[in-house]
Amino acid sequence: MLDVLRRIVQEVNEARSLEAALATVVRRVRKAMHTDVCSIYLFDPMRERLVLKDTIGLRTQSIGLVALCLGEGLVGLVAEREETLNLEDAPAHSHFRYFKETGEERFSSFLGVPIIHQRRMLGVLVVQQQEKRRYDEGDEAFLITMAAQLAGVLAHAIATGALNQPTRADGMAMFKGIAASPGIVIGEALVIAPLADLDSVPDLIPTNTESEIRRLREAIDRVRGEMRRTGERLANRISVQELALFDAYEQMLADAALGQEVEKRILEGQWAPGALADVVRRHVHYLERVDDDYLRERSADIRDLGRRILTHLQEESPRTINTIPPHCILVADEISVTMLGEVPREKLAGLVSISGSSTSHVAILARAMGIPTVLGMVDLPLQRLNGAPMILDGHRGRLFVRPDTELISHYQEQIAEERALAETLEHEQHLPSETPDGHAMALMVNTGLTLDAVAQLKPRIAGVGLYRTEMPFMITERFPSEQEQERLYREQLKGFAPLPVTMRTLDIGGDKDLPYFPIQEANPFLGWRGVRVTLDHPEVLIVQLRAMLRASVGYDNLHILLPMITNVDEVDAALRLLERAQVELGEEGLAIATPRVGVMLEVPATLYQLDALAARVDFFSVGSNDLTQYLLAVDRNNPRVAELYDACHPAVLAALVRLAKEAEQLEMPTSVCGELASDPGGALLLMGMGFKVLSMNAPSLPKVRAAIRRVSLAQARTLVEEVLSLPTLMAVRGHLMMRFEEWGLAHLLPPKDYQK
Ligand code: PEP
Ligand code: MG
């Protein structure tokens, strides 16, 4: 059964349209369950009707015509209750409703299960049988499992379906994701597909079919050459059977069939990579369904060959700067720091990806760079987006593909309003970040990659509260040497001197991978991360500490911060290494003053050992991003649980209040450098709790400063008291919005949803 399930889901997954996906479902389920009818109804939220979308067994004329309200008929009942209904004698049920166009009167037995994706009812999957049949437990379990597995695939296909007919008047499609970096852009999609991934090749209409065919032939020739050479190389080392595989590969390539099929597809209007992907998928599809183990295994060979040809095709079509659109919205399955480098900054207008969430590190980087970003767009049909005009709304986490003129003009107005607000706020950026009742808040910035705007920024801030050293490590091809690091760190220390610069030691692991130091773990956020890695690799940490110390000579503004501290002995071990680095440099003739050292408070355990930590270090820095993740047990990077992740959860706020109080009693300077500090609502709450230093991405400074300059410390303290009495996150967010409206500051919070 498992095998059947897996194959059906895979087939549905590979379908090129919603219609094809539904056809596959009904056909395959009916066969697998040996039953007379299988139908699928999808819920149309606009009409609030369940519409029969496909069937095998009922009259096909009824497809699209039968439309039920929730609660109407047996199907409506399944949808309304979101529960399975299994009836041997369906017409006897009080809810039974007869639709004559379906020819349903012939069927006695009924089994219907709801299709639910992320709490949303998408539709109902039904099987029916002419004679009385009690669908047994196994049937029920099969259909429930099928529906559960199909839900995600269908949600994706429904979203994709909207894009299948771009020429329709309503060809616009809207996708929801997680707002990761604020701002709105109107631009054009540039899809970056991972190399040699047949499933994410975009569809493109070729500008010159002849040259596409030429490209294809050359790529096939190259793969043939490779195969021949590999076969020859391995001739003495592998068995005759294994060697035969290379002959088989060569034959597949020599046999004009594959190439000819791809060429035919090109002539039909696909570019070479898209045509290749289509043809390979079709073959794989076919081979995977045949009941012959040998042939099924050949499907892997076809895929492999396809990937090899694709690699050559992709090598052939490098993106040139000229082909990148001027307002480019980069779209990918997963956006890496290196990908950001592929598009010149002046052309990079926005970022969209299927994976990731608001505090994933690409989001943090995007905010620092001021690039509107939406992540976690799980239903995005990557293949169909390249070159599409789109509006990206980084405030609300929305992407509109092929927007209509009404929507474009609505967003153009919003962009103009935002620009006007930014200009107004700009006027007060040189003023102190002080409340109307005279309470000063120190505002600092978080940095990572080089900032061009240091000179402009310096008079407006109290220093760098967090320099994420792993960022520069992520764009190199090996660990940077001590000299390279020294140069990098000096640039920061010198640039911001005499202001303090807080350099965090390498914080890799979690979602921050170094290409040259991959960490594969089942639970990366609970695994080898931050100081746990660097203490296990003292040779890496000591080089970094030496580079920081060297770079600080002459500036004396270096603060060192240790990430992911969980245990006091980790602090001791790191301090010993720091001392060693200092002694070594002393022996080399460099007398360097001991920098101030702090720990990140981001693992909940540290909140219970503040005194022991305070006895060892000079300052604390609260990493609210990870603290939230670990307190709420919500992966900060997982779009599925993104709605549960919010630092304004009452429990997180309560923990922060306690932390602020205890840190004050311990007289420990304590800043907050997580994203909560860059949200004007969060910043006021932190101020009311007693934190005096906030560190944030540079683009957030104007709004946070504006909020601080308009709300007194007394008001902020009351705000904290008020939210502490609220039991839910929704209530806290609602209350913040209400107070901001009352203070006339609603424009500083993210705008509400735009309902068209
Ligand atoms: C944090 O966890 O809040 C933090 C500032 O560090 P990072 O986001 O880099 O993990
Ligand atoms: Mg952290």
| Main β-sheet, spatial strand arrangement | 7-14-13-9-10-11-12-8
CATH fold-level label of the largest domain: TIM Barrel
Mean pLDDT: 89
| Unreliable segments of 5+ consecutive residues | 164-170
Small molecules held by this entry: phosphoenolpyruvate, magnesium ion
- Over the alpha carbons, how many angstroms does the gyration radius reach? 30 Å
**How many DSSP E strands?**
22
Strand fraction: 15-25%
Find the CATH superfamily of the largest domain: Phosphoenolpyruvate-binding domains
The number of helical elements comes to 25
CATH top level label of the largest domain: Alpha Beta
User: What is the approximate shape?
Assistant: globular
Could you characterize what this model shows?
The chain is α/β, with parallel strands linked by helices. The protein has 4 domains: 2-160, GAF domain (Beta-Lactamase); 173-195 and 325-402, Glucose Oxidase, domain 1; 198-315, Enzyme I, Chain A, domain 2 (Orthogonal Bundle); 428-748, TIM Barrel (Alpha-Beta Barrel). Helix content is 44%, strand content 15%. The protein is built from 25 helices and 22 strands. The strands form 3 sheets. The protein has an 8-stranded mixed β-sheet. α24 packs antiparallel against α25. The protein is globular, with a radius of gyration of 30 Å. The relative contact order is 0.07. Residues 164-170 have low confidence and may be disordered. The structure holds phosphoenolpyruvate and magnesium ion. Residues 364, 466, 468, 507, 602, 623-626, 673-674 line the site of phosphoenolpyruvate.
